[in-house]
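Action item from last week, closing it out:
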Amino acid sequence: MTPTRTARVAVLPGDGIGPEVIAQAVRVLRAIAEATGLAIAFVEAPVGGCALEIAADPLPPATLTACRGADAVLLGAVGGPLWDGVEPARRPERGLLRLRRELGTFANLRPVKTHPALVERTPLRAEVVRGTDLVFVRELLGGIYYGAKREGSEEAEDVCRYEAEEVRRVTRVAARLAKARRGRLTSVDKANVLATSRLWRRTVSEVVAAEFPEVRLEHLLVDSCAMHLVQRPRDFDVVLTENLFGDILSDEASVLAGSLGLLPSASLGAGTLGLYEPVHGSAPDIAGRGIANPLGAILSAALLLRHSLGLEAEAQAVEGAVERALAAGVATADCGGNATTTEAGDAVLAEVAGAFAAAAGGKERATWS
């Protein structure tokens, strides 16, 4: 069947290993398009440090325009030691923060799942991590990252600020997700110390009680959550956090998956436009060596298919292909193997092709509209 329209994807490879891993994610998206009849137009644009070199701006106007005109944005990573001396307002990371705000992506989804093939690779006992399957929902546009800042030689200040409506909207995202999963929502704060956390706890409780009575809500202080994540990770279903806490806790949880290189993310707003990126950073120490793990980027592409294009079956096909590639022993160095970035991508592509070939008999090809 001929596609009714073309999906537009803005591709922002960024810095460090970003271009290497995003290249593999784009290969997978192209393979999905070819197998299903989906039409995808890719538009590449600079962001972060490389954009500073090109346009003296970590988020050039042309890049922002391309993202606003897309159905989804696929991003690699930003930053690195080359730009450590840049003034704070022009650092590569500021470009990413601006992009999130300009696109209105207030809810960051970070799924963490222990892959059976990597259970023995985690620093925790296998019986602790086996079967872990949780999702962080991190508020992305408020808190200390976006608060007023003042920096001097002897004193500095970062303001943490939240409005109740910011908490309400991200709580609804997390509660809907919990309702569709196992019905359990853990909200993380520091309500014993912080005024913003007391607002957070009170607002989350009100929203869940009024709108999601079937969801079981628990509140945890952030330090307790950090401890329980490595003691009893299987007890978590959906974890709702403010911006800073979510950044830290989801990186901590990477040990549950076996490697930070495996973790994807989706940053969503009120519509279907989303920003998709692997959780890992730019890893400049291994950039250009062809050994970076592309699976986090590929799984981010699966989230793109699911959340921005509404292609659930295709998203599951990509996720299944990653599972099978790992089960077959294909692993980059961070996962204890010796596969190159391209070889890992090749393995996923082969699994995708095999899955669609097996399912092809007489079925109508998928379209996107």
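Closing note: The longest strand covers residues 6-14.
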